[in-house]
Design a protein that fits this description.
This protein has 13 helices and 15 strands. The protein is an alpha/beta fold.
């Protein structure tokens, strides 16, 4: 046979496969109906094992491919059943409240909690998210969460990750501890400068202050300074600039932004500090109540799965079947336990898209723990 003849035969087989697949999916609909009427779980691992064993026994040297084919079919069948049975879950109730509390337009004003002082990167993020917002400056990330929790502020803005230095673990820990929602996010380009009181030279500097994330982003520069310069973490880059400006000592410097040098009357002596020119920090806006606005295209989750081979793969396979792209997966050890982890997931998806709610409900049912942090837009 020539290639065209072979392809013609493949086309006929494909037609047969499609007809058989559609018949199988129609039967899956019947199975879903029966399971719903009889309060049965969708996932039946025992039956899947039995079918896979039969498939591999019949497939000879093609058993590996047959195994993956039927595993995919099972995943699609479960996804369809989940979609048909979607409705009365905890995550759906949260999403419904979020849609009710949200709307077409994200608010431009409100009382917003912000960690740091005037000139902080968090302040810039707040100003961009809430052009007419009223800012309340607080000392720590925990205080920002407390202000939102108490109702003192409706929203809070905190950094969650940096492109060069990774996640802000303290914020992730607070997200785990508190039942808050992410309602918006924004990425800011971060440029660090070394600033001192006017007249101070680099040779005079004995102490450098900044936030630990900024220090990490400038680690290459700091590592070359030698033991004569002490690097001291503080709560915020703007606080570091303010501290230096208010100090009577001329041997202190701060790593902060150019606007802080202008704001606090400092002089930049080095404007090329950061390890990478592609240095962005992502900030999130948190709310005590779920809020989902038009244009929301990011979903954040915290999950835990069984500590066994293949458990995480099964979760990721559910995302693949739903056609959802995962933009972030990060593990975090569970405090007080040995070798147990939770996972932070970020998905490029909207709860309005077909199959997404069913996928979330399936994850909620099958994960050891499941937290829906929000569906929001990034600006």
């Amino acid at each position: 046979m020539d290639l065209n003849e072979i392809r013609a035969k493949i086309d006929k087989v494909d037609d047969t496969l499609l007809d058989a697949f559609l018949k199988r999916m129609a039967l899956s609909d019947e199975v879903a109906k029966y399971k719903k009427e009889n309060s049965m779980a969708i996932y039946n691992k025992t039956r899947e094992r039995e079918i896979l064993a039969k498939v591999t026994d019949r497939s000879g040297d093609m058993e590996r491919y047959s195994y993956h084919l039927f595993s995919t079919i099972f995943g699609l069948s479960r996804a369809r059943q989940e979609e048909l049975l979607a409705g009365d879950s905890a995550v759906k109730k949260i999403i419904d409240r979020g849609l009710e509390n949200g709307g077409d337009v994200f608010p431009q004003t409100g009382t917003v909690a912000c960690q740091g002082v005037e000139g902080a990167n968090s302040q810039e993020a707040c100003d961009k998210l809430f052009p007419r917002g009223r800012l309340m400056y607080l000392k720590s990330f925990g205080a920002v969460f407390d202000a939102v929790d108490s109702g003192l502020c409706k929203y809070g803005v905190v950094p969650i990750e940096n492109s060069a230095n990774g996640s802000v673990r303290a914020v992730y820990d607070l997200l785990v501890e508190r039942n808050f929602s992410i309602v918006r996010s924004i990425r800011l380009f971060i440029h660090h400068e070394l600033m001192v009181k006017p007249g101070t030279k680099m040779s005079d500097v004995k102490e450098i202050y900044s936030h630990e994330q900024a220090l990490g982003q400038c680690s290459d520069f700091l590592s070359k300074l030698g033991p004569g310069v002490k690097v001291i973490p503080c709560d915020n880059t703007a606080m570091a600039a303010k501290l230096v400006a208010e100090s009577e000592c001329n041997y202190r410097a701060a790593i902060s932004s150019h606007r802080c040098a202008q704001l606090y009357g400092l002089e930049t002596i080095n404007s090329d500090l950061q390890n990478s020119d592609n240095n962005y920090t992502r900030f999130i806006c948190i709310s005590k109540k779920p809020e989902i606005y038009a244009g929301a295209n990011h979903i954040s989750l915290i999950i835990a799965c069984d500590n066994r081979p293949g458990a995480l793969y099964e979760i990721l396979a559910r995302l693949s079947v739903a056609g959802v792209n995962m933009s972030k997966l990060e593990s975090c050890p569970v405090t007080g336990s040995n070798f147990e982890f939770i996972f932070f997931l970020e998905l490029d998806a909207s709860v309005h898209e077909p199959g997404v709610l069913a996928m979330l409900e399936e994850l909620e049912r099958n994960c050891e723990s499941f937290t829906f942090l929000g569906n929001y837009a990034e600006v």
